Amino acid sequence: LPRPFPSLAFFCEGGPLHDDCARILEAYTFFRPDIGYVQGMSYLAAVLLLYLPAYQAFVGLCNLINSPSVLGLYRLEPEAVECRARLFNKLCSLEMPQVARRLDIVGLTPEMFLIEWFMTLYSKPLHIDIASVVWDLFLLDGEVVLYCTAIALLRLSEDELLSDRGSELEGVAQILGDDLRARANDSSELLQRIQEVRGRAPRTLLDEIKQIENAEFMSAAMPRSQSFS
């Protein structure tokens, strides 16, 4: 079992939620053998277990992964990855052209960081209390929140990204990796920045994100029932 949230003893070997998390992930591989276990699932299961009993957490995991926002990513579908990378690049170029150019120059593509952010609904890169804010918004408003959160995090990291440290791939990867959790430590500030990004984003781009989300929802197929209730 990959250990989510290393700072929390709940999920370490012998911890009170370790076995439940392992059982949920194992059950999911039987429920969806076409998907199996994919890296990142343990973070979703762990967050749910912090709030729900084991069975309800399993139901929640099934329904989350079956959402059009992440199903294609967990199926490892290239078109789902490429589509989200393209939309992110478009929004980033509009919102933060200097940062977009810096990422392009050093060779950091969205596939190298954004997809993991989406697949874990930000529970891997952020503290659990901060990620919970993103989850709340995502469950209310859908996939557009994931894009706006990405831009908000880049905005928090803008000075570092444009500094000498951000002039090389290794430095940028660290800024958007291990350093991000310490920088994004205020849920109110992050929420405000997410809302600001959404307020500025062109309606046409927001509509495109929604259209893709709807299209993937319509095309999603499960070997059995589509979701639990």
Automatic annotation (TrEMBL):
<dbReference type="InterPro" id="IPR050302">
    <property type="entry name" value="Rab_GAP_TBC_domain"/>
</dbReference>
<dbReference type="GO" id="GO:0005096">
    <property type="term" value="F:GTPase activator activity"/>
</dbReference>
<dbReference type="InterPro" id="IPR000195">
    <property type="entry name" value="Rab-GAP-TBC_dom"/>
</dbReference>
<feature type="domain" description="Rab-GAP TBC">
    <location>
        <begin position="1"/>
        <end position="142"/>
    </location>
</feature>
<dbReference type="GO" id="GO:0031267">
    <property type="term" value="F:small GTPase binding"/>
</dbReference>
<protein>
    <recommendedName>
        <fullName>Rab-GAP TBC domain-containing protein</fullName>
    </recommendedName>
</protein>
<dbReference type="InterPro" id="IPR035969">
    <property type="entry name" value="Rab-GAP_TBC_sf"/>
</dbReference>
<dbReference type="Pfam" id="PF00566">
    <property type="entry name" value="RabGAP-TBC"/>
</dbReference>
